Amino acid sequence: MIFRRSLQQELLQTAVAAFAVLIGIVIAQRITYYIGVAASGRIASNAINTLLGFSMLKFLPLLLSLTLFLAVLLTLTRQHRDSEMVIWISSGIGLMGFLRPVIRFCWPVCRLFKQG
Predict the structure, then answer these.
(1) Residue 75 dihedral angles phi and psi, to the nearest 5°
(2) How many angstroms separate the CA atoms of 74 and 85, rounded?
């Protein structure tokens, strides 16, 4: 129980941080593109916020997929580096003990993509 809760908490913290960084990168890239397009006169300058919002919706599946990947990779890498995995495995937690919390963490996003 302690293992599962600590793993899910760390996955969530890493996912929030990764999502914030990724969304910041995409917003910075898209806003520079839209400002360039507005400067050339192809779109109105007051439409930049609307276009930015719609492009964020367009990139949301990609951002969520990358967020899940980075959260799982960074969390498990840190646990391996800090020898937490060795402690959990020596205490009797097997491979399924690692997979269940990860799958439980990823399941809502996978269901979202299945429905969409």
Answers:
(1) -70, -50
(2) 13
Please write the tens of the pLDDT for every residue from 44-79: 989 999 999 999 999 999 999 999 999 999 999 998
Cβ contacts of 35 within 8 Å, gap of 6 or more? 48
The DSSP secondary-structure symbol of 109 reads H
Q: Which helix (H) or strand (E) holds 106?
A: helix 95-115
Question: How far apart (Å, rounded) are the C-alpha atoms in residues 26 and 37?
Answer: 16
The residues near 4 (Cβ < 8 Å, ≥ 6 apart) are 97, 100, 101
Return d(Cα 37, Cα 65) in angstroms, integer. 29
pTM value?
0.86
